[in-house]
Amino acid sequence: MESAVASTGSGLRCSPNPMPKQQHERRSARVGFVSQLRPRAVRCRRSPHPDARAYAAVVVGAKGGEAGGVGVERKRLAVFVSGGGSNFRAIHEAALGGEVNGDVVALVTDKPGCGGAEHARGNGIPVVVFPKSKSAPEGVSTDELLNALRELRVDFVLLAGYLKLIPVELVQEYPKSILNIHPSLLPAFGGKGYYGLKVHKAVIASGARYSGPTVHFVDEHYDTGSTLAQRVVPVLANDTPEQLAARVLHEEHQVYVEAVAALCDDRIVWREDGVPLIRRQTNPDEYT
Ligand code: GRF
C-alpha cells in the first residue's frame, strides 16, 4: 500500500527500512513513540511496522558524539570477521565515540585466532565461532548461531571480511538487516573467488582506472545484494595490488562507518525499484 505525500522535488518514491526484528519485539511491548517527520519531496510507502517510522533531529549520542535521534533506539550489532578486522575496529570505535548509534555486542568468526577475534576479546565483546570446522572444533551450528544472536538481541549483522557464505537461515532471519563491504565497485570484480588481493589483481589486470569499496545488503549469494554506498579511488599506472588494496581499505573504513551510522539512525529508505538510499543526516530531503 502506498500513501501519496506532496511531491515538490524529485518525485522519488520510497519506503523505510523495516524495523529490525529484535527491536520490533522489544518496542512492541512499549507504548508511545515519536512519529516520523517525512521529508517533503518524497513519496513513501507505509512501513509494515508503524514504530519504524520514528525519525527526528540529531541529538548527542550516549558517549558524546552525534548519533541517533529522538525516538531512535540504540542498535545492537554483530560483526562477522575472518581476518585482521580493521573494518570491525573502525565500526567499534565509531560506536564507542558516538558516531554510530549502536553497540557491537558480538563478534562472529570462522577463525578464532584472527586479529578481529583478538580485538573483540580484548574489549569484552563475546566471540562466537561459526561454522564448526577441523581447525575450529568449538564452532557452533547454524541453529546455535541464530539462538546466540537472538539471546544477544542483535538488530543488525555486519559482514566485515568474513569469507564464508552465510547460511540462508540467517538471511531470512534478518531481512534488509545484513550489510557487507566488498573492496571493488560492484557489480564489477565480485562473486565467488573475488576476495583479498585477488580482487585488486583483477582490477589492475583489467585496465580499470577507478576502483573503490561497495557497501551492500546481503542476499543468499556472494556480492549480489543491493548496493547501498560506494567510494571511488584512482587506480594508478604503477600500482601493485597491495598499494591499491591499502587505498581502497582507507575508504572502506569511512564508507562502512557512514553506512552503519545511517542504518542505526533509521536513515535508509528503499526506492520503489528496490535501490536502498541513505537519507543525509544534515538534510533529510537529500539522499546519497
Ligand atoms: C576488506 O578489504 C573487505 O573489503 C574485505 O575483506 C577485507 C577485510 O579487511 N571483505 P579487514 O579484516 O576489515 O581489515
Class by helix and strand content?
A: alpha/beta
What's the CATH H-level homologous superfamily of the domain at 73-266? Formyl transferase, N-terminal domain
**Annotation field: number of helices:** 7
> Under the CATH scheme, which class of the domain at 73-266?
Alpha Beta
CATH architecture label name of the domain at 73-266: 3-Layer(aba) Sandwich
Rg over CA atoms, rounded to whole Å, is 19 Å
The main pleated sheet reads as: 7 strands, mixed
Shape: globular
SSE order, as H and E? Answer: EEHEEEEHEHEHEHEHEEEEHEE
Order of strands across the widest beta sheet? Answer: 8-7-6-9-10-12-13
- Residue stretches low in confidence (pLDDT < 50, at least 5 long) are 1-9, 27-66
CATH topology of the domain at 73-266: Rossmann fold
Q: What percent of residues adopt helix (DSSP H or I)?
A: 25-40%
